[in-house]
Amino acid sequence: MEQSGMDFASAVARSRAEVEEAAPPIRAVIDEVGRVIVGRPDLLRRLLVGLLADGHILLEGVPGLAKTLAVRSLASAVRARFSRIQFTPDLLPADLTGTMIYDPRSGSFTPRQGPLFAHIVLADEINRAPAKVQSALLEAMQERQITIGETTHRLEEPFLVLATQNPIEHEGTYPLPEAQVDRFLLKVRVGYPERLEEHRGMEMQILERMTGETLPETRPLIEREAILAARRVVRRIPMAQSVKDYIVDLVLATREPERMHPALKGLRELIAYGASPRATLALAMAGRAMAFLSGRGSVYGEDIKEVALDVLRHRVLITYEAEARNVSSEEIVRQILDQMRAP
């Protein structure tokens, strides 16, 4: 049942007080990681959105854009277990999950845990591993558990997979299964700055910062308990009915664009499959996390619009007609966002 105006206002006031108390240590992580990463505030905010919304993130970009460094720096700013897995074509599921080791003294097998038993996992070049490895990773991502032998082990919270992939190399890579891609809360494209002046300034800062006598490092700022507490605050951030309607309309527009807005009529033949209900939940959680980082006690339409492209770009599958016309899923989502007005 929808809240009355007075009830909603009081919920917003309570939420704002909780956010003001819990957000400063989390936002301080952005400044701390920014000491190492040059000119990537949007990327750092999205990494924290994943951490706060309990969702995995896929980072896509050409080599050398500090994707791995950003993840490592974030992990260093959080007092939590971190592991890095370099995905290769010869990787085995046991290389991620661990295996059973025979103890000749006791005559029994004991589990040896693999690198997935961590709080923040960097899956570097995730698309280089074969299907069996992806299947093992999928269980950990979705179920928050790992099965070794006949025993299933629950993973400690927070558990966050931050994966990277290179879009320009295809030799020795495996396309990620759609079911696995859908488990990523966000797919973030990491590119070059668009303006030449900004690009030159960033390159100069990188040159000066990373070629000095000592390299900058992040300091551990927050405990994992603070992250779990912030997650509870994020889940309690209220959302007006108009914002909920906007979320649902965006998702429906990826399935039946012509029914949601007349200007989107031409998109239907370009979309093979629209976003699933998981996208609806992802938009709501990511929007709440964005409101938290902005220090607000309720979710605005602009919070949803800011994360919508990253939430939807990997959940809209295009047709052969779209491929023939060189239209990407990202362009389709952009058209939907341009036409669907945020409240």
Q: What topology does this entry show?
A:
Elements: H1 5-33, H2 41-53, E1 56-60, H3 67-77, E2 78-79, E3 82-86, H4 93-97, E4 98-103, E5 108-113, E6 120-124, H5 131-143, E7 145-148, E8 151-154, E9 160-165, H6 178-181, E10 184-189, H7 196-210, E11 222-223, H8 224-235, H9 241-253, H10 257-260, E12 271-273, H11 277-293, H12 301-312, E13 317-318, H13 320-324, H14 329-339
Parallel strand pairs: 1-9, 1-10, 2-11, 3-6, 6-9
Antiparallel strand pairs: 4-5, 7-8, 12-13
Helix pairs in contact: 1-3, 1-8, 2-11, 8-11, 9-11, 9-12, 11-12, 12-14
Structural class: alpha/beta
The CATH H-level superfamily of the largest domain is P-loop containing nucleotide triphosphate hydrolases
Strand order of the largest sheet: 3-6-9-1-10
CATH class of the largest domain: Alpha Beta
Low-confidence stretches: none
- Radius of gyration from CA coordinates: 21 Å
Number of domains: 2
- At the fold tier of CATH, the topology name of the largest domain is Rossmann fold
The major beta sheet can be summarized as:
5 strands, parallel
Question: Which band does the percent of strand residues land in?
Answer: 15-25%
Architecture of the largest domain, CATH level 2?
3-Layer(aba) Sandwich
Choose one word for the global shape: globular
- What is the N-to-C succession of helices and strands? HHEHEEHEEEHEEEHEHEHHHEHHEHH
Number of strands: 13
Distance between the termini: 20 Å
Helix percentage range: 40-55%
Mean pLDDT: 86
